[in-house]
């Protein structure tokens, strides 16, 4: 019985630390940083001082959003003569390349064979001649001041990249998936901001992030998480990746929970791909700060939290069978079973839009952890593919 109790508390600690403890620890550390370090620097720049930037957009079959995206880029609050657009349309069959030809300000790279986003980025970066590269997705809308906010931190010689904020737009049709995804990204953005406040965040979202072009090194062509790979290489090269909440890219959420799970499974497979390619990063001595954040933010969430979530009620039930009169363990079991019952309710009601979206949060959390497990098995079975079919989103 003592063994079951120890396992129960170990599982509970890992789960609570992964989703709450690490975030709280970052918040406390960020407060201490703000009290002990001066962060007041003059980052304002005139139009003459702003660096030229190249926006790299990897677009596979994005004909429907090309015009909207180009109009969005052209309306950004940045000297237009310093903004260059480089689109990679490898493998597109819907006429994306032909639509882009109507825009003389756009440079196009097209290969008839679809080689995957990582390889598309590698090819595009060979042609970038500006000191700053900004990566963005074709289906996202970038806030007007985002480019200015991305280049401001790059005036610091120790900063090599800047992560923008990903925002999920409110669903037009009351889609509960968007609500869950939106809450997740607000949570994730808070973590990134706290990591940045304590030195460097560990990753950027592919929807919008900037790097000093000279720091880019080609990534393996079969890479699934290109944004995470690029971010990590910059940090491991001795630079920081900062986070800017004022540089934002918005998009609608996944069309439904099935499409969201497909996206999460791919991300999970990419996470395990990165983990097993870079096991040396678990050694804290070369990069202690990065390793701590990487292990707390990513490794625990990818590899440990899912097992903890599903094993916890099992060990709780074992304890109850031997200590049925202990009210604490009875209470924890009731809480856990209620959580999973709400998840089951969310699954059964996933296509009903009239139900309050908060009722779907347990289902979204369970779905996310199931996706981690499925993604792991897809990775070890080599069923992950860099040439993936993107998840359908609301339009």
Question: What report would you give on this structure?
Answer:
By secondary structure, this protein is α/β, with parallel strands linked by helices. It has a single domain (1-35, 47-395), classed as Spore Coat Polysaccharide Biosynthesis Protein SpsA, Chain A, CATH 3.90.550.10. It contains eleven helices and eight strands. The chain has helices at residues 2-36, 66-74, 96-100, 117-125, 146-151, 176-197, 226-236, 257-277, 288-322, 327-348, 361-380, and strands spanning 53-58, 83-88, 106-109, 132-136, 141-142, 159-169, 208-212, 240-252. An eight-stranded mixed sheet has the order 3-2-1-4-7-6-8-5, with helices on both faces. Helix 9 packs across helix 11. The model has no long low-confidence stretch (mean pLDDT 92).
Task: Supply the key terms.
single chain; 395 residues; alpha/beta; Spore Coat Polysaccharide Biosynthesis Protein SpsA, Chain A; eight-stranded mixed β-sheet; 11 helices; 8 strands; 49% helix; 13% strand; globular
CATH architecture descriptor name: Alpha-Beta Complex
User: Helical segment tally?
Assistant: 11
Q: Which CATH class applies here? A: Alpha Beta
Elements, N to C (H/E): HEHEHEHEEHEHEHEHHHH
How many strand segments? 8
- The largest beta-sheet arranges its strands as 3-2-1-4-7-6-8-5
User: What's the overall geometry?
Assistant: globular
User: Whole-Å distance between the termini?
Assistant: 54 Å
Using the CA coordinates, give the radius of gyration: 22 Å
CATH homologous superfamily (4th level) name: Spore Coat Polysaccharide Biosynthesis Protein SpsA, Chain A
Q: Which structural class should the secondary elements be placed in?
A: alpha/beta
The proportion of strand residues reads 5-15%
Number of domains: 1
On the 0 to 100 scale, the average pLDDT is 92
How helix-rich are the residues, as a percent range?
Answer: 40-55%
Give the CATH topology: Spore Coat Polysaccharide Biosynthesis Protein SpsA, Chain A
């Amino acid at each position: 019985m003592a063994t079951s109790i120890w396992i129960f508390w170990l599982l509970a600690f890992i789960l609570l630390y992964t989703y709450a403890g690490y975030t709280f620890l970052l918040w406390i550390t960020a407060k201490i940083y703000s009290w002990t370090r001066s962060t007041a620097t003059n980052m304002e720049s005139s139009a003459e001082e702003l660096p030229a930037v190249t926006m790299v957009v990897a677009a596979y079959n994005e004909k429907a959003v090309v015009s909207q995206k180009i109009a969005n880029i052209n309306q950004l609050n940045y000297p237009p003569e310093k903004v260059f657009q480089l689109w990679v349309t490898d493998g597109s069959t819907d006429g994306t390349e032909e639509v882009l030809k109507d825009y003389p300000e756009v440079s196009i790279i097209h290969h008839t064979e679809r080689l995957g986003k990582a390889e598309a980025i590698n090819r595009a970066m060979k042609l970038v001649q500006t000191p700053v590269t900004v990566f963005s997705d074709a289906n996202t809308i970038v806030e007007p001041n985002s480019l200015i906010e991305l280049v401001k931190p790059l005036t610091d010689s120790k900063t090599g990249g800047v992560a923008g904020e990903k925002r999920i737009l409110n669903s037009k049709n009351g889609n509960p998936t968007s609500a869950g995804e939106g809450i997740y990204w607000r949570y994730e953005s808070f973590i990134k901001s706290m990591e940045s406040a304590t030195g460097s965040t560990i990753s950027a979202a592919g929807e919008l992030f900037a790097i000093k072009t000279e720091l880019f090194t080609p990534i393996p062509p079969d890479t699934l998480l290109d944004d995470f790979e690029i971010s990590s290489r910059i940090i491991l090269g001795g630079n920081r990746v900062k986070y800017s909440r004022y540089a934002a890219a918005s998009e609608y959420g996944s069309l439904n929970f099935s499409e969201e799970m497909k996206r999460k499974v791919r991300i999970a497979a990419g996470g395990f791909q990165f983990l097993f390619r870079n096991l040396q990063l678990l050694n804290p001595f070369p990069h202690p700060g990065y390793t701590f954040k990487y292990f707390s933010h990513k490794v625990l969430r990818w590899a440990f939290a899912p097992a903890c979530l599903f094993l916890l009620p099992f060990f709780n039930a074992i304890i109850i069978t031997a200590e049925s009169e202990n009210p604490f363990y009875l209470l924890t079991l009731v809480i856990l079973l209620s959580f999973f019952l709400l998840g089951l309710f969310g699954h059964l009601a996933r296509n009903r839009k009239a139900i309050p979206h908060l009722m779907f949060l347990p289902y979204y959390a369970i779905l996310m952890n199931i996706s981690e497990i499925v993604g792991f098995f897809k990775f070890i079975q080599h069923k992950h593919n860099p040439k993936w079919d993107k998840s359908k989103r609301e339009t």
